[in-house]
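Quick one: structure tokens for this chain, please?
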Amino acid sequence: MTKPEFLKLLDELLELPPGTLKGPEPLGSLSQWDSLASVGFIALVDRHLGLAVDPAKIGEAETVNDLVALVQGKLQ
């Protein structure tokens, strides 16, 4: 999976139009990013990348790129 494909999945998770997320967006600026979205992110990463992400690391993320960095090893 490429970064743009992963960002598209994040768009879907957050119910944003495809192509909305580019990476530098602060999570705090996304009204859709909440605790439920965090759980959805964990499920998305597990389902699509077969990766378990530490919830504490998600809590430390400040931008979309920080979320991408958590799965970078699985992206092409």
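DSSP finds four helices and no strands in the chain.
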